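In this section we walk through a basic example: taking a raw amino acid sequence and producing a predicted 3D structure, encoded as discrete structure tokens. The instruction is simple. Fold the sequence below.
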Amino acid sequence: MKAIVMTATGNPDVLDYQDIPEPQITTPTQIKVKIVAAGVNPVDTKIRRNGVFYDQPLPTVLGCDGAGTIVETGKAASRFKLGDKVWFCHGGLGREQGNYAEYNVLDERWVSLMPNSLSFAEAAALPLVLITAWGGLYDRGSLQKSQTVLIHAGAGGVGHIAIQLAKLKGARVITTVSSEEKADFVRALGADEVVLYTQNDVVSSVLNLTEGQGADLVFDTIGSAVFKESINVTKHFGRIITLLGLSDSDLSEARMRNLLIGFELMLTPMLRDLDEARDKHVQILRQCALWIDESLLKPHVSHQFPLQQAAEAHSLIEAGHTSGKIVLSVSKS
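The resulting token sequence is shown next.
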């Protein structure tokens, strides 16, 4: 089968379009999926630059997000039938094969039926960001109706989904973006207030919008500098949830404000083989599929590349100027 293979760590040119052996079912509850589309996420580019999460030799196939059709089932697989359209987040971290390939094999437990109203490309764009935004806002952030949430980088992959999930909860959403075009985009998603961080000071803008109190919840999708700044715009006794690690952050003001600080790494259940937590991920996909089919939640795919142009997709996502998600078209449905 055709696949994109990461041959070494480095720049996007280490991604090579190759023929590799097609994966085979090896346990009774596995299924084989013909991959139609694969999502491209920032974690893919970080693994490509820094190396895989496991002590495994290269080459490897990247790509956590996939959508496709079931073409084979193991003897004890009973949840799905041949031809079912499915989406999932599995593999691509250096141990199990990822989804930059024409086929993948995984246990049926980690798969969910696609929303009926989505294309394969739209479905492939969503699993990782849906689970991340849900975990950050609902689970770690405990977001409640009528609370104010500040979502950094609202036009990004996680951000544009987080805005919609926050509005489904009944929250007031403030978000940051870099341009007027992105401001229009996030307003169309439901954002109540938009701060252009390229033109305005984020701290003073958010404090003005919250009558000096700050947001009940801040969702940091950027990293240390933004996290540090966010302390001053989080309401006393509020919460900050970050997707990134912290480096030498002064937490004295966070302590004075009695803030709860949380981390959201949706990869943990896969990396640590926490099966019950992965079951929760599948439940999230099922619930979000219902909302999507009710037109309450919608992905935005800004760019779609053929599989053999995965390097171009990585270059684009690393440039940091896109809205929504980037997807690889792997094969015809």
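Looking at the output, two observations stand out. The mean pLDDT is 96. The chain has two domains: 2-126+298-329, 129-263. In the next section we compare this with other chains.
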